[in-house]
Design brief:
Blueprint: H1 10-36, H2 38-45, H3 49-77, H4 80-98, H5 104-118, H6 122-130, H7 138-145, H8 148-167, H9 169-190, H10 212-220, H11 223-243, H12 246-252, H13 258-290, H14 294-304, H15 306-315, H16 319-332, H17 337-347, H18 353-369, H19 372-387, H20 390-397, H21 400-424
Helix pairs in contact: 1-3, 1-4, 1-7, 1-8, 1-9, 3-5, 3-18, 3-19, 4-5, 4-6, 4-9, 6-18, 7-13, 7-17, 8-9, 8-13, 10-18, 11-18, 11-19, 11-21, 13-14, 13-16, 13-17, 14-17, 14-21, 15-16, 15-20, 19-20
Length: about 425
C-alpha cells in the first residue's frame, strides 16, 4: 500500500483491523478450546489436572513464546501479511490434529504445533496496525483488534461446546481447525502490506533491517518496558489461571452441564472482555495520552479489586451467583493489555515494533499462559485428595499473591514514568 499518511483510506484501515481481529479470534478459539473441553478430554484420555495445566498452559506457551521473537524479527524485516496468513494455516492444521490425539504425548505435540503457529499472529498484527493508524488513534485500533479475545472466548465456549456436546470433543477440534485453514488465504487477499513507519516522522528510512540483539536490547534497556512486561505477565498469570480453569470449576464444583457452560460462560466472558477492551482503549487514548502514568496505574488499581470477587466466585454455592461474581475479575484482569501495547508502540521506533511486542508477549505468555494454568492444576492435584472438589476452588484462591504482585509492578511502572517525566523537565 502506497497511500501517504496525509491520505489514509479510513474505511479500509478498519477493514484491516477487522480481518486481523478475526484471525486473532481464530487464534484465541484454538488456544482456548482445550480449556472449554477439559472435562471430556480429561476423562477420555485419562489425564490429571497437572497434565491438563501443562497442555492448556506450559506446553503451548513455551513454544509460543520462544518462537515469537524470531518470528517477530522476520516481521520486522519482511512481509507481515504473508507471515500472518502462513501462521494461521499452521496453527489451524494442528488444532484439527488435536482431535486425533490418543493420549498425553500426542495431544502435547499437537499443542506445540498450535503454539508455534500462533507465534506469528499478534506481533506482526500490532506492527501493521501501528502503520495504519497515527499514535493518537492506536489505542482504539488495538482495542478493536483485541476484541478477538472475547470473540474467541465466546465462539470457543458456544460453538466448541455445542459441537462437542452433539458430536464429541474430537469433532470440535477438527471443525474449528478447518475454519482457520479456509480463512488463511482470504486474509492474504484482503490485507495489504502498509508502508513501514508511515505515521512516524522520525522513522529512519535508510536504517536497514534491525539486528536481533539491537531490537531486544531496546526493550531490556528500558526499566519501564521491563516492569510493564512483568506486570502484564503476572496479570495474565491470574487471568489465564482463572479463566482456563473456570469451565472445569463450573462443571466439577458447581455441577453445570457442558450445554449450560456453552450458553452462559461464553456470553459472560465475551461481554466482560468487550467492556474491558473499551475501558482499556479509554485509558490508552484519553487518560494515558494526558498523563502516561495512567497507562500502568489504572490497570494496577483495578487488580486490587479482583481479590474480593475472586473469593466470592469460588465460595458461593449457586452457579448463577458464581457466574455473576466472575464478571468483575474477568474485566479487571483484561484491561491492562491495550494500555501496555499503546505504551510500547508509542515509545518504540517502527523498525523494532514487532520484536518489542514479541518480547512483551514472551513475558506475558511465559509467566501467564505458561505458568498460571499449570500452577492452578498442580495446587488442585495437591488439595483435591484432602478437600475433594473444593480443592479446585481453593487452588483458584491461591492466585491472590500474584494479583498483589501485579499491582506492585504496575505501581513501579507508573513511578518510573513519572520520574522520567520530571527528569526531562
Amino acid at each position: 500500500m502506497s497511500t501517504s499518511p496525509s491520505e489514509p483510506d479510513a474505511r479500509y484501515r478498519y477493514v484491516v483491523v477487522a480481518v486481523l481481529g478475526f484471525a486473532y479470534m481464530l487464534n484465541f478459539v484454538d488456544r482456548q478450546l482445550l480449556s472449554i473441553l477439559v472435562e471430556p478430554v480429561k476423562q477420555d484420555l485419562g489425564l490429571s489436572d497437572t497434565q491438563i495445566g501443562m497442555l492448556t498452559g506450559l506446553m503451548f506457551a513455551l513454544f509460543y513464546t520462544f518462537f515469537g521473537i524470531p518470528v517477530a524479527m522476520i516481521a520486522d524485516r519482511g512481509n507481515r501479511t504473508r507471515l500472518i496468513a502462513a501462521a494461521c494455516g499452521i496453527w489451524s492444521i494442528f488444532t484439527a490434529l488435536s482431535g486425533l490425539a490418543t493420549g498425553f504425548v500426542s495431544l502435547a505435540l499437537a499443542r506445540i504445533g498450535v503454539g508455534i503457529g500462533e507465534a506469528g499472529c499478534s506481533p506482526p498484527s500490532y506492527s501493521i496496525i501501528a502503520d495504519y493508524f497515527p499514535a493518537h488513534k492506536r489505542g482504539r485500533a488495538l482495542a478493536l483488534y483485541l476484541l478477538g479475545v472475547p470473540a474467541g472466548s465466546f465462539v470457543g465456549a458456544v460453538a466448541g461446546a455445542a459441537i462437542a456436546d452433539a458430536y464429541g470433543w474430537r469433532t470440535a477440534f477438527v471443525v474449528i481447525g478447518l475454519v482457520g485453514v479456509l480463512f488463511a488465504p482470504l486474509l492474504l487477499l484482503i490485507v495489504r502490506e502498509p508502508v513501514r513507519g508511515r505515521f512516524d516522522a522520525a522513522a529512519p528510512s535508510d536504517a536497514g533491517p534491525p539486528r536481533l540483539m539491537e531490537a531486544l536490547s531496546y526493550f531490556w534497556r528500558s526499566p519501564i518496558f521491563i516492569f510493564t512486561g512483568l506486570a502484564c505477565g503476572l496479570t495474565s498469570f491470574c487471568s489465564y489461571g482463572l479463566l482456563n480453569w473456570t469451565p472445569a470449576f463450573l462443571s466439577r464444583v458447581q455441577g453445570m452441564s457442558l450445554g449450560q457452560i456453552s450458553g452462559y460462560f461464553g456470553v459472560l466472558v465475551a461481554g466482560s472482555m468487550v467492556v474491558a477492551a473499551w475501558i482499556g482503549a479509554m485509558v490508552a487514548d484519553k487518560a494515558g495520552a494526558r498523563n502516561p502514568i495512567w497507562y500502568a496505574l489504572l490497570p494496577g488499581l483495578g487488580m486490587l479489586l479482583v481479590v474480593p470477587f475472586l473469593f466470592g466466585f469460588t465460595m458461593v454455592d449457586d452457579w448463577s451467583l458464581s457466574l455473576l461474581l466472575l464478571v468483575p475479575p474477568t474485566m479487571l484482569t483484561s484491561i491492562y493489555l491495550v494500555p501496555a501495547l499503546a505504551l510500547l508502540q508509542n515509545r518504540t521506533p517502527p523498525q523494532y515494533r514487532a520484536t518489542v511486542s514479541a518480547t512483551l508477549l514472551f513475558l506475558l505468555n511465559l509467566l501467564g499462559l505458561g505458568c498460571g494454568p499449570l500452577f492452578v492444576g498442580m495446587v488442585s492435584d495437591r488439595l483435591t485428595p484432602v478437600y475433594g472438589t473444593a480443592g479446585l476452588a481453593m487452588a483458584l484462591q491461591w492466585l491472590t499473591p500474584f494479583i498483589i504482585l501485579a499491582f506492585l509492578c504496575q505501581a513501579i511502572t507508573a513511578w518510573l514514568i513519572r520520574r522520567e517525566a520530571l527528569q526531562g523537565k
